[in-house]
Please model this.
Amino acid sequence: MARARTFVVPYVLSLVVVIAVLVMWIIYAVSSGSRLAELAHRVGASGPTWPWVILGVGCGLLGLLIVFITHQLARSLAEYRYSRKQEEFVSSITHEMKSPLAAIRLHAQTLEQDVTAAERSESVGYILRESERLGRLVDDVLESSRLVAKKQSLDLQPTDLAVFLSTFFSEIRPRVKSHGVELEVEVATGATIEATEEALGRVLTNLIDNALRYSAKGGRIHCSADDFGGWVSIRVEDEGQGIPKSELSRVFDRFYQIGRERGGSSGTGLGLFIVSQLVEQMNGSVRASSHDDRPGAIFVVELPIVGEAV
Model:
C-alpha cells in the first residue's frame, strides 16, 4: 500500500491544484468581466465577446492539463498493477517449484538408504512425476514469454482431431487417475483442423491441469469434442469450486489466479493465459463459465473445421 501511495499521491495533489486553479479562474473571469474587457482592449482586441474568449482559452489550457495529469495517473497505476502481478508471479513460481524440488530431494535421500524393491519403485515414480511437473512449469514460463514477445507464430498443419484426441487422452489418463480423479471422454468428431499437435496438446493439458487443481479426490473431469456448423467444440468440465462471475472476464489474463482474493489460489497464473493465446493463434476462441445450480467450471475451445477426416 505504501508503494501505491507513492505512485498516486503526487498526481492526485497536482490534479487537485489544477482543478482548484480552474475553479478560481472561472470565478475570477465571471466576476471581473470589465477587467477582462480592459485587458482585451490593451492587447488590441475589442468587442463584447473577447472576455469570454479569454475565459475559454484559460479553461481550455487548464482542461488539457487536467487530461494530461489524469492520463499519467492512469498509466502509473497500470504500471504499478503490472509490477505487482510480476512480483506475485515470482512468488508463486518459487512456491510452485519448491514443492516438487522438496519431494525429489526426499525420495532421492530415500533411495540412498537400504530400501525394498517396492519402496525403490515408489520413490522413483515420485521423482519422475515431480520432474515432469517441474518441466511443465518451466515450459509454461518459456511459452508465456514467447507469446508475449510474439517472436514466433505457429506453423499450422491439417490435423485429424479424433486421432490426436485418442492418443492424447490415453497418455494423460494415468496422470489424472494418480490424483484420484476420474477422466470421462466423449469424442464425436471427424473434423480436420489447422493446428499443431504441440500447441493443441498444451491447450488441453493446461485445461485439464486447471481442472485437477480444483478437483477433489473422487471427482470427475468430463472432456468432449463435437462438431457444429463449421466449427469443432472441445469442452473440459470439472466438479470443482467453479468460477465466480466477477472473475470470469479475467481468468485468461496473464498472472491472474482464480480465487486469489479469497486466499485459496495456487499456481503461476500462466496456464489459462497460454491457452487463450495458443487458441487465438489457431484462429479459434475459448471461453469460461460456471454452473448456476451446482459446482464446477466449464472451458470451451472452438476451432474452425477445414475438412472432414477420411
